[in-house]
Design brief:
Elements: H1 7-16, H2 30-36, H3 42-48, E1 58-63, H4 76-84, E2 87-96, E3 102-104, H5 111-114, H6 121-124, E4 129-132, E5 143-145, H7 153-156, H8 173-177, H9 197-207, E6 210-215, H10 229-242, E7 253-254, H11 257-266, H12 268-271, E8 275-277, H13 280-283, H14 291-299, E9 304-306, E10 313-315, E11 321-323, H15 325-332, E12 336-342, H16 368-380, E13 384-387, H17 391-400
Parallel strand pairs: 1-2, 1-13, 2-6, 7-8, 8-9, 9-12, 12-13
Antiparallel strand pairs: 2-3, 4-5, 10-11
Helix pairs in contact: 4-9, 14-15
Length: 403
């Protein structure tokens, strides 16, 4: 197999956080493990025939919060690992601190589960909801809520990223922070370097990858000390412009159509790359897609639509995974389609969980992720897939000749 990297290169990557274009992409064992677990058939044979290929970067492969299956999300280490696995695009979820500085966190109120903030009593007492222990006698669960807006940037920099999770029956802060899901690992959580948005831009630029920042919903009332939602949306774009990043290398995302509309109207070079993260199918169970609706989104200037995996697929009358009506409508309207999130549900033997709910009856082994990926790429026509372990999507993209 050719996907081998020297110890020296690996050390350089993690010591300096810098990967030059000449550094090789390495996939590790997971993609090959997944192919081995597939049911026999033409797709498995085709993928097996690619085992000896030299891996290369692909924009089809999007690092979801970096490589968050095994590295603390939105950390320098997670981003570097995603680039090493060939992710051509890497995500920074963008929120803001008390002093209105942009940082990379999945939510404004997740520091209690994604960092070690509760290990610092003087900082922990500033949390919106300080830690309260569980009560084993009554079954009452532990609580905490720590927001980036509870802390200045200087205070934020004191924290270390950890694997996302919490122990709801914890009676101490230390127990509470020890809640990593059993399909993840703490093996690479000994250091998790948090990043500002601007620092992530500099790092990802040095890694030679494109960027997809998501403007996160504020958990504080807006305007926040005079900082409006439009200020927030503009500040995110300004940091790319200040870093000299080309608009075509940035895919700004939001669940809020007002943010997308703002970018289309005020930053059209970036706006044409905008990604509307679509949550309508789970926000309203009665909602149904239509071609008219998808065309309206396209006409409003939306470049890409991005729903969860399950929205794009269904099971046909023959028991095969097939494109959903949603997928057909989006494609017919001319929207680019991106989806999320592969390898975020643990083992697929029990149907795969939330992300796979529309096809759970035909999923029974981890190798089925490759079958789903093939339908998304070949039949739905997605142009990118978010994954918590980008080596998987990189391997598939390389095998199928997807750039």
């Amino acid at each position: 197999m050719k996907n081998i990297v020297s110890f020296g290169v690996l050390f350089s990557i993690f010591a300096t956080g810098s990967v030059m274009a000449a550094d090789p992409v390495t996939l590790g064992p997971r993609p090959f493990y997944l192919v081995a677990d597939m049911d026999s058939g033409p797709l498995k044979e085709k993928l097996e025939a690619c085992f000896s290929n030299s891996p290369k970067k692909s924009t089809f492969s999007i690092g979801h919060r970096g490589a968050s299956l095994q590295f603390p999300e939105h950390t320098k280490e997670s981003y570097v690992a995603a680039a090493q696995m060939g992710a051509g695009i890497i995500e920074c979820d963008v929120t803001f601190t008390k002093d209105k500085q942009l940082v990379c966190r999945h939510s404004q109120n997740d520091l209690h589960t994604t960092t070690d903030v509760l290990a610092y009593p003087k900082l922990a007492e500033k949390c919106t909801v300080p830690f309260t222990p569980a009560n084993p006698q009554t079954g009452e669960k532990a609580t905490a809520e720590c927001r980036t807006s509870d802390f200045t940037l200087d205070e934020f920099r004191q924290l270390k990223g950890k694997m996302d999770g919490a122990n709801p029956m914890a009676t101490t802060p230390e127990e509470y922070m020890n809640g990593t899901a059993d399909f993840r690992t703490d093996l690479y959580a000994s250091r998790g370097t948090l990043m500002t948005h601007a620092e992530s831009i500099a790092l990802l630029k040095s890694l030679g990858v494109k960027m997809t920042p998501e403007l996160k919903e504020p958990k504080v009332p807006m305007p926040y000390n005079g900082f409006t939602q439009r200020d927030y949306a503009q500040k995110m774009i300004d940091e790319y412009k200040e870093a000299g990043v080309k608009a075509l290398d940035v895919y700004p995302q939001s669940f809020n159509t007002d943010d997308v509309d703002y970018w289309v109207a005020n930053e059209p070079e970036f706006g044409q790359q905008s990604v509307y993260l679509d949550s309508r199918m789970y926000d309203d169970e009665s909602w149904k897609s239509s071609l008219k609706d998808m065309k309206a989104l396209k006409e409003s200037g939306v470049g890409y639509i991005s729903p969860p995996l399950y929205a794009l697929v269904t099971v046909d009358e023959k028991g095969n995974i097939a494109p959903s009506d949603y997928a057909k409508h989006a494609k017919a309207a001319g929207l680019g389609i991106i989806t999320w999130t592969l390898e975020r549900s643990g083992h697929l033997g029990n149907g795969g969980g939330w992300y796979y709910q529309s096809v759970k009856d035909v999923i029974n082994n981890d190798g089925d992720v490759m079958t789903l990926l093939d339908v998304l790429a070949q039949d739905v026509g997605v142009v990118g897939v978010f994954s918590d372990w980008p080596a998987t999507t990189t391997f598939y993209a390389n095998c199928m000749g997807l750039e």
